[in-house]
Model the fold of this input.
Amino acid sequence: MTSAILVINGPNLNLLGTREPEIYGTTTLDDLKAVTTAQAKRHGLAADFRQSNDEGELVTWIQDARTSAAGIIINAAAYTHTSVAILDALQACGKPVIEVHLSNIFKRESFRHHSYVSPAATGVICGLGAQGYVLAVDAMADLLTKVKT
Ligand code: CA2
Done:
């Protein structure tokens, strides 16, 4: 079995650190990748860290994870609140899923309070910025240990 965690980031997260620092902070996507892969390494895991603005590409990556990843950490960004396709793909995948958001979506507009991803997730982390990704890796490592035993 592979020990890679697929870390998926959705639309506009490539802009992190360049705009709206009052909401998303000054951390860039490259910074997020660095802290996520470093934390995975501490657990003896590889992190396959990706970003796409394309819903179909995100769905394809989730489908591919059935054979190429041990689990999925996902920040689907705006697709969190709109995408039945991503929910269906996650539910079909059969891998553990942790949902993460940089901001606290429940302190924001009401349309952000509903997540199509959450029904497929074992756990949800939001509002902790980059630390949320680190905690998501810790949670995934724990889940994967439980899956093995
Ligand atoms: O808080 C999160 O991580 C979100 O998933 C971020 C999404 C938002 O639609 C979700 O409701 C919550 C937006 C990502 C866009 O990121 C930007 C970063 C910098 C500048 C503009 C957008």
About this structure: The radius of gyration is 14 Å. Strands lie at 4-9, 46-51, 71-75, 97-101, 123-126.
